[in-house]
C-alpha cells in the first residue's frame, strides 16, 4: 500500500516538446451536420447543374436563377460559419430574416434546427427538421439531423429509421451508414457496426478524401476491438490504389506505427517527403522516429533543418531540434537555439521553457527556475508551476514550494493539480492533517478522483480509521485494473481481518506489477495472514536478500525473521 504519486524526474524536454505530439489515426465517425452543408443544399442548384452539363445555353431567366442560387448558397454558408463560431444570436437573426422572405426553403429550417441543437432545445430542433421534411420529404440533411438527435437521446430504433430513409433516397449517403454503425455499436453489435462501416467505405471508394474519413472511423472501431491489423490492411489497399497520394500514405504511416511496423513507417514517410518537398509534418515525424537510433544523428538533424528552412515562421522544427540537442547533452548548442527561438517568437514561452529545460538537464536548478518563472509570468499554467515546485523540493526547499503553490491556489482555489501537489508534499513530510485537507478538497470538486481516494485511504489506514476501507473500495470500483489501487484495497482488507478477500486482490496486483517490491511484501503479508507461511517466506527471502532498497524493506526483514523463527 503506497500513495499514487508522480515523483519528480528530470525530464529533458518535459515542457516545451509536448506540442510536437503526433495526431491520432482514429476519429469519431458520428455524423456532424455542421460539417456537411453540401449534401443537399438546393434542388434548384442540382437542376441547374444538369442543364450546364448538357451544354445548353442559359436564358436570361436561367441566369437570374443561377445568380439567386449562388447568392442563397453564400448566405447559407455564411450562417453555417456563424453557427460554427457559436455566434448564435447573429445566426438566428439572419435565419429569421431569410425565412420571413422565403418560408418554403427547407435547408434554412435545417439551419434553424442546428441553431436549436446548439441552444440545447432538442424539441425545437426536431420540429424544424420536421418542417424541412414536410417541404422536401427527400431532404437528406433533415433526415440525418433527425437521426443524430434520436441517437443522442438513445432512441436507437428511431435513429435507424431516419438513417435508412436517407439511404433509400441515395445509396451513397455515407453519413447514414456511419450513423447505422454508431447505432449498432451502442447496441453492442460489433459485427453489424463493422459491416456498416465497410459498406460506407465501399460507397466512398470513388472519393479518396471521403474514403479516408471512413477508414478513420474504421480505425477507431478496430482500435476498440484491438484489431489494428485490419486498419493496416485497409490502408495498404488504399496505397495500392493511390500509390502517389500523400493522404493515403499518411494514413498508412499511422497504421504501420499502430502495428509496430516502425521501419516500414519510416519508408512510407520517406516516400511522402520525396513526393512533397514542402511537407513539414512528415519530416518532423520521421525525425522523431530516427532520433531513437544513436547512429541516425546526422539524418535526424538534417530533417529538422529542412523543416525549419521550409517554414522559418514556425517554431516546431527548432523546438524539436533543441530538445534533441538537450537529449544528446549538446547543451551549448541547445542554449543558442533556445535563445534564437525566444528572440524570434517573443510572444511565445517556448524559448524560455527550452532554456529552462537545458539548465534543468544540467542540474543548474537556479538558472532553470529563473527561466521557468519568466515563462510562468507570461503564461501561467500548472505544468510550469509544478515543475518549479519539484525543483524546489529537489533543492530541499519544501517551504518555498508550499508557499509558491499556496499563492497560486489563492487565485485558482479549485485547481486539482495544485491540491494534489500540496497533498503529496505534506504526505512526504508526514503532515497527514494538511495532506488530508488537500485530498478532501480534490474530492469536493471530483468525488470519484481515484488518486485522491487511494491516497486518502492510505492516510486513514495509517491511523486505523475505519473510513479507509470505504475510500479504498471506491477507488477500486473506479480502477479495478490498477496495481496500486488493488494493493491499497487488498492491504487494508488484510489489516481489517478480511484475509481471503485481501489475498485475491494482492495476487492480482502482484501479477500486474511483478517488480514492485512493496506489493510483493504486502502479498507475503497476505499469505502469512492466510496461514501459508511457506509461500510468504518464498516471496520475502529474495526481497530481503536483494541489494535494491525499497521503503518497507525493514518491515520485510522483520516479517521474515518472525516467520522463520517459529
Describe, in plain words, how this protein is organized in 3D.
- Among the domains are: 31-52 and 61-184, Tetratricopeptide repeat domain (Serine Threonine Protein Phosphatase 5, Tetratricopeptide repeat), CATH 1.25.40.10; 396-446, no CATH class; 449-566, Serine Threonine Protein Phosphatase 5, Tetratricopeptide repeat (Alpha Horseshoe).
- The protein has helices at 43-53, 60-84, 88-101, 106-118, 122-135, 140-152, 156-169, 174-186, 190-203, 208-224, 228-241, 246-258, 262-275, 281-290, 297-310, 316-327, 331-344, 350-361, 365-378, 382-394, 398-411, 416-428, 432-445, 450-462, 467-478, 483-495, 499-512, 517-529, 533-545, 553-564.
- It is mainly α and 566 residues long.
- The longest helix has 25 residues, at 60-84.
Topology summary:
Elements: H1 43-53, H2 60-84, H3 88-101, H4 106-118, H5 122-135, H6 140-152, H7 156-169, H8 174-186, H9 190-203, H10 208-224, H11 228-241, H12 246-258, H13 262-275, H14 281-290, H15 297-310, H16 316-327, H17 331-344, H18 350-361, H19 365-378, H20 382-394, H21 398-411, H22 416-428, H23 432-445, H24 450-462, H25 467-478, H26 483-495, H27 499-512, H28 517-529, H29 533-545, H30 553-564
Helix pairs in contact: 2-3, 2-4, 3-4, 4-5, 4-6, 5-6, 6-7, 6-8, 7-8, 8-9, 9-10, 10-11, 10-12, 11-12, 12-13, 13-14, 14-15, 15-16, 16-17, 16-18, 17-18, 18-19, 19-20, 20-21, 21-22, 22-23, 23-24, 24-25, 24-26, 25-26, 26-27, 26-28, 27-28, 28-29, 28-30, 29-30
Which terms would index this structure?
about 575 residues, mainly alpha
At the fourth level of CATH, the homologous superfamily of the domain at 31-52 and 61-184 is Tetratricopeptide repeat domain
Question: How many E-type strands?
Answer: 0
Gross morphology: globular
Tally of alpha and pi helices = 30
Structural class: mainly alpha
Alpha-carbon distance between the two ends: 27 Å
Report the biggest beta sheet as strand number plus sense, adding barrel if it closes. Answer: none
Order of helices and strands, N to C? HHHHHHHHHHHHHHHHHHHHHHHHHHHHHH
Q: Radius of gyration in whole Å, from Cα? A: 30 Å
Overall mean pLDDT stands at 87
| CATH class annotation of the domain at 31-52 and 61-184 | Mainly Alpha
Q: Quote the CATH topology of the domain at 31-52 and 61-184.
A: Serine Threonine Protein Phosphatase 5, Tetratricopeptide repeat
Name of the CATH architecture of the domain at 31-52 and 61-184: Alpha Horseshoe
The poorly predicted ranges are 6-31, 36-58
Beta fraction: under 5%
What share of residues is helical?
over 70%
